[in-house]
Design brief:
Number of strands: 6
Distance between the termini: 68 Å
Order of helices and strands: HHHEHEHEHEHEHEH
Structural class: alpha/beta
Strand order of the largest sheet: 2-1-3-4-5-6
Number of helices: 9
Largest sheet: 6 strands, parallel
Strand content: 5-15%
CATH class: Alpha Beta
Helix content: 25-40%
């Protein structure tokens, strides 16, 4: 009984210490040179909930793909693959093969999670029998870029949707939440990574001037950090829901 009580006390103390550590990470001051989108744009992010309703009255017309591809979808931070379901279903309607990343919620770029998604990429590539396309939303795009650097022979193209790969990793309105949940600083991931370094495959960055989470220039990137950049008018949450964004992704899949 005494041993059990001691163990319970140690467990509670460890939990309190971990909670305090994560709170400290979330409370760090933002550097002066790393501002995120203005508050009005962040508040506008809630409008994404209307996109599914809009589709009922104005369904997206999907043209058959000219060159069907196998696509691996990587969700954004804090998101589940279900949030990319509309994008996946639209891809399938066009004739592409859309596969999710094989895990649940994206809770940060931990070493364990990256190893698992690497294995998933290898499995999908083996099944496809040819290099595949990686489509990553927000943090998912940052992970997709790193996957393409490690496995360029398995990837033919990378599309990032509002992904903060350029400039300061704190130039967004989500870095504090990331640090609290992932348990490490946004610029000190558990995997060796250089987000701004371009993968050795075709890399296209989608960005939006209406993005309320990631600073547009961070998602747009600079010359040499991506091959091309494409602007769409949608919220950050709308990259996987808004008709303009979904159509732009479909067009890029057909752009060989």
């Amino acid at each position: 009984m005494a041993d059990t009580a001691v163990n319970d006390t140690e467990t509670k103390r460890s939990a309190r210490e971990e909670l305090a550590r994560r709170w400290a990470l979330a409370s760090e001051p933002r550097p002066d040179d790393a501002g995120g989108p203005r508050a009005a744009l962040l508040l506008n992010e809630i409008t994404w909930v209307a996109d599914p309703i809009k589709r009922i009255f104005n369904p997206l017309v999907v043209a058959p793909a000219k060159s069907p591809k196998t696509v691996m979808l990587l969700p954004g931070f804090g998101s589940h693959p279900r949030r990319m379901r509309h994008l996946a279903q639209t891809m399938k309607a066009a004739g592409h093969v859309a596969r999710h990343w094989g895990m649940g919620f994206n809770l940060g770029a931990t070493a364990e999670r990256f190893e698992a998604v690497e294995q998933r990429l290898c499995e999908i590539h083996e099944e496809a029998g040819e290099p595949i396309v990686l489509v990553g939303w927000s943090l998912g795009g940052v992970i997709a870029r790193e996957l393409a650097k490690r496995h360029p022979e398995k990837v033919c193209k990378v599309l990032t949707l509002g992904s903060p790969f350029s400039g300061s990793p704190r130039a967004n309105n989500g870095w504090r939440a990331y640090q609290a949940i992932a348990g490490h600083r946004v610029d000190q991931p558990e995997v060796d990574a250089e987000p701004a370094e371009k993968p050795p495959v075709e890399t296209i960055a989608f960005w939006s001037p209406m993005d309320g989470v990631v600073l547009p220039r961070s998602a747009r990137g600079r010359e040499g950090e991506r091959d091309r950049e494409i602007s769409v008018r949608c919220t950050h949450m709308g990259f996987v829901e808004a008709p303009e964004a979904v159509q732009a992704v479909l067009r890029e899949l057909d752009n060989d």
